Amino acid sequence: MRLIRMLLVSALAFSCVAAHADDKDVARLTQLLEKSQTLSARFSQLTLDGGGTQLQETAGEMTLQRPGLFYWHTDAPQEQLMVSDGQKVSLYDPDLQQVTIKKLDQRLTQTPALLLSGDVSKINQSFDITAKEAGDVIDFMLKPKTKDTLFDSLRLSFRKGLINDMQLIDSVGQRTNILFTGVKANEPVDKSKFTFVAPKGADVIQE
């Protein structure tokens, strides 16, 4: 629950480090992201503190379509729903009966979930990127070029050309691992998934 809220309300702006993107690494990541104009998958998410103690484990499903359309649903009992229609992002928390709606601006496109469905032509403007390849797996380390952030690093891993997992590490060493399974690329998706209508009686907060 903590992560999905941060995916909505926080921009990834990691502490600057001495890392510079190799043009080949940027081109490779751009190619892999652009290759999948639509994606759907199940995900499992595990969050650990700096000492390795488990804090939270959740699962759910996601669907995306470029550019900027995104659906991310976390299963009960910690159910939350995040939907982007390309113009705004809606976060629905059934427990609180609350909907938070934010404009999809450049800050939000730098968050890890929306990064997968955003405008990849701008990725090099926001991140320093390095890559490491082993067999059919390639890992990309993304280091934001701005300061004051909740995260220190973001790793995107691809297996056989498809997104496989993500890992985020924050300034106190807390790690969030997201594993994608049953990944399907470039299949038709129901566009109604990207239109959110607030449930009757829900509190709606516009930001």
- Spatial extent as radius of gyration: 16 Å
The fold-level CATH name is: outer membrane lipoprotein receptor (LolB), chain A
The share of residues in helices is: 10-25%
Number of domains: 1
Cross-sheet strand order for the largest sheet? 7-8-9-10-11-1-2-3-4-5-6-12
Shape, please?
A: globular
| CATH superfamily (homologous) name | Lipoprotein localisation LolA/LolB/LppX
| Distance between the first and last residues' Cα | 19 Å
- What amount of the residues lies in strands? over 45%
Number of helices: 4
The helix/strand series, from N terminus to C terminus, equals HHEEEEEEHHEEEEEE
Overall pLDDT confidence: 83
Q: How many β-strand runs? A: 12
Sheet with the most strands, sense and barrel status: 12 strands, mixed
CATH class category label: Mainly Beta
Structural class: mainly beta
Short description:
The protein is mainly β and 207 residues long. It has a single domain (2-197), classed as Lipoprotein localisation LolA/LolB/LppX (outer membrane lipoprotein receptor (LolB), chain A), CATH 2.50.20.10. The chain contains four helices and twelve strands; from the N terminus they run H-H-E-E-E-E-E-E-H-H-E-E-E-E-E-E.
